[in-house]
Amino acid sequence: MPPPADIVKVAIEWPGAFPKLMEIDQVGESRRLEGCGFNFLDPENSSQNRNNIKNGSILRLTTSPTALQLHERIQSSSMDAKLEALKDLANASRDITFAQEFINLDGISLLTQMVESGTERYQKLQKIMKPCFGDLLSFTLTAFVELMDHGIISWDTFSVAFIKKIASFVNKSAMDTAVLQRSLAILESMVLNSQDLYHKVAQEITIGQLIPHLQGTDQDIQTYTVAVINALFLKAPEEKRQEMAHILAQKQLRSIILTNVIRNPTPINDEMAHQLYVLQVLTFNLLEDRMMTKMDPQDQAQRDIIFELRRIAFDVECEPNNSGSIEKRKSMYTRDYKKLGFINHVNPAVDFTQIPPGMLALDNMLYFARHHQDAYIRIVLENSSREDKHECPFGRSSIELTKMLCEILKVGELPSENCHDFHPMFFTHDRSFAEFFCICIQLLNKTWKEMRATNEDFNKVMQVVREQIMRALSLKPNSLDQFKSRLQNLSYTEILKIRQSERMNQEDFQSRPILELREKIQPEIMELIKQQRLNRLCDGTCFRKISSRRRQDKFWYCRLSPNHKVLHYGDLEESPQGEVPHDSLQDKLPVADIKAVITGKDCPHMKEKGALKQNKEVLELAFSVLYESDEYLNFIAPDKHEYCVWTDGLNALLGKEMTSDYTKSDLDTLLSMEMKLRLLDLENIQIPDAPPPIPKEPSNYDFVYDCN
């Protein structure tokens, strides 16, 4: 009988002693030795992961500091000894076992005391030992961040004095970069993890104090600064968000980010892109209140806005009450409201009782009328002079367009945890949504004319306009003018060409013999998809650890064994380059023990309290494997594709149907390809086994193509 996979034969070296051949349990034994203060080092292998130990390895045991030793050493009176101890602590705190032991020794309280009072003790030394002071504080804060990231103790336990001290590091004009970075990270976590701490941090940090950090050149500092602003924005009570947005506008945050971040020659990294996306979402979410507010037909101030739209369009002043009969004035208003394209010609206020878009649509219309007056008047008068059935109703179009734009930009939804989809053009204007509307309403009017649409075609026109907007946004224009230029190239004729091309590429055959052939070969294709999914599970995937703090960069890896009988998984120090070997993943789950695969909001890690619970996109990426009675292995996939691969693969292992959207898409694609190949074979058309050679680059470019 072969020995268990965890038992390996190795040579153990101990300083001052001869090597000894031993059999050890690479998981249990190595952990016990590490708990006693020993560390495994393999001089012949660059990896120092205890789970990478293989038969024949030569291991050298060296002492590593225990939690108790480091707890004592960081209290040393010697500056050098304290600095070395804090450096070791910052490295050791990444391990959850060490972190648990250190925290049990009340280590977090010791670190906070050192930050609160210990740093003042060294203020006098700072001028003569500035580098040392910066390192001392940096390692202290790094250890604190690493320990708190394990989620062992609550953030609510910290004093106001500690918060004030961390805030003071951020508020200082000249501070060590590492200290500033850790301080910003701590403030972000405090705000995100505790409503009580949010209020305390908000009292200590102002937007004005954060702005200078965005004007530097260090993108990491800029990223952490935007993250703190986002956290304050996200946790602010609803009544405070508009006030905060006003302060951000006063401090010209948008302009500063545009100049120092977006238009900076340094490429924007993924984390900064995510934070800019979050800021974009939170900014647009300020429109939610207006979007969900119905118009009160009896509110005179709101009715005056409609009167203003009429006045600008037809260059008329509000008539005094005694001018003409009431019936005459009503008739005149009704005629003008019809020209403005409202559904209710008698009382257009009723049109704005639909939510969404509510009052936001009226706000957009008024902005367009006041800031793009010529275009507004042209659209209204142009349509009022057409036949009734061919006019593009401005009022109805504006309401439906506003609703569509809110759907496209997901106004009112919380930001996704994994999205980086920010649009630079929305940072180029203080009223970017209103300007976005102004460009799109003119596009809608142009498309209406190109389609020669009638009132019956309204929904068709809106579908084309949506496609035009989505295609232009996908090109990520840098400015609103560039967005407008992209739309000019996406005329209705161009959209028809694109659709025709896509239809040809996805041609579907509907004749009876073809459908019968399709039905016959479908099981074969489904088996092919199943094998592909299982092969992908064998390759494995790197998942981020679930935490309320995003930038902790802690990972775990999971993969299926080649015989499809065991799931291997384990923690990683960093994101891997390529596959992770089975024997380096310390935990195992037999497939036979899996009871079910749970997805979405039913997952246990989605039922826990926290921001993740409310995040729609994270819910869509969550799945759990239920095993034994009530044990779960919880996942959040890096993207929708990996989610579908894993849920399909796990269901296939359990003998269940694969139902994801990607399976349906793959099935359609592969069936279409197989059908075409078989039809070509029927026509006796030979398909080469190898692709044709790539043509050689011409040696002479001096030629002219004769168009005649």
Report what the structure shows.
- It is found in: Cytoplasm; Membrane.
- It holds the Pfam family ELMO_CED12.
- It comes from Oryzias sinensis.
- InterPro entries: ARM-like, ARM-type_fold, ELMO_ARM, ELMO_dom, ELMO_domain-containing, PH-like_dom_sf, PH_domain.
- With 708 residues, the chain is an alpha+beta fold.
- Helix content is 55%, strand content 9%.
- The chain is built from 31 helices and 11 strands.
- A 4-stranded mixed beta sheet has the order 2-1-4-3, with helices on one face. The protein has a 4-stranded antiparallel beta sheet with strand order 5-6-7-8. Strands 9-10-11 form a 3-stranded antiparallel beta sheet.
- A hairpin with a 6-residue loop joins strand 1 and strand 2.
Class from helix and strand fractions: alpha+beta
Radius of gyration: 32 Å
Q: Main sheet?
A: 4 strands, mixed
Strand content: 5-15%
Determine the mean pLDDT. Answer: 84
Q: In total, how many beta strands?
A: 11
Amino- and carboxy-terminal Cα gap: 82 Å
Spatial strand order of the main sheet: 2-1-4-3
Low-confidence stretches: 40-50, 125-130, 609-613
SS summary, helix count: 31
